[in-house]
Amino acid sequence: MTQVILGENEGIESALRRFKRQVSKAGIFPDMRKHRHFETPLEKEKRKAVAKHKQRRRRSR
């Protein structure tokens, strides 16, 4: 869980910037997008097969 504690003389803008940076480093947004909708087992299998195919194509180059 990402948490930002405000400093003594720190403004909201800088704290928000720091929070956004921590969230992006933690990789929360891609994970959130992935779990946004329910995925059936068939859809999950197809997505993994496509990812595997892309990975093989990248390795062969």
What does this structure look like?
This protein has helices spanning 12-26, 28-34, 41-60. The protein has 61 residues and is mainly alpha-helical. It has one domain.
Helix % is 55-70%
Q: What share of residues are in beta strands?
A: under 5%
What oligomeric arrangement do these chains adopt? single chain
Strand/helix succession: HHH
The major beta sheet can be summarized as:
none
Number of helices: 3
* Shape descriptor: elongated
Number of domains: 1
Low-confidence stretches: none
Question: Whole-number radius of gyration?
Answer: 18 Å
Q: Got a strand count?
A: 0
Structural class: mainly alpha
Give the structure's gist in a few sentences.
This protein is mainly α and 61 residues long. The chain has three helices and no strands.
Secondary structure topology:
Blueprint: H1 12-26, H2 28-34, H3 41-60
Keywords:
about 60 residues; mainly alpha; 3 helices
